[in-house]
Amino acid sequence: MEFRTDIHIEAARIQKEITDFLGLKSNELVFEYSSLDGKVKLDLITINPRHNQSFLFKTIFGFDKTDCLNKMLEYVKTHKEKEGSFTIQWITNGMTEVQTSYFRAKNMYDALDKLYYGRDVNNITVFSVVLNPIA
Questions:
Q1: Is the Cβ–Cβ distance between 13 and 21 less than 8 Å?
Q2: pLDDT tens, 102-111?
Q3: Tally of CB atoms within 10 A around 133
Q4: Angstrom distances, CA of residue 85 to CA of 23, 67, 123
Q5: Under DSSP, is residue 22 helix (H, G, I), strand (E, B) or coil?
Q6: Prediction pTM value
Q7: Cβ neighbours of residue 99 closer than 8 Å, sequence gap 6 or more
Q8: Which pLDDT belongs to residue 1?
């Protein structure tokens, strides 16, 4: 008889490993799954508790939930070597002070996509996008 790991237990284990690797609390990450063209899509969303805003961390596609999670885990372990660091200064309608957020992205357009994820672009004003120097 073959023993198969429960998919939910395996998913929870990998999600915890991702959360721990990023050094975030479980309430600061959202794993959002959907289907697109027969594949599973995972949007990993971070929540900044300082200004209570959410941002896209990364989108991954796979053939199932655990495939997406394993690919995401590999990404979080290597993304700092593969992508640039960007600083974006922005404000949304109703806020009284400029916010500063940091993103890892391929280019500035990718960083802006992560900022704008799930938002109406007309409700946010971006003041600057800066590629940070490599340390």
A1: no
A2: 999 999 999 9
A3: 7
A4: 17, 27, 24
A5: helix
A6: 0.87
A7: 51, 53, 89, 90, 91
A8: 47
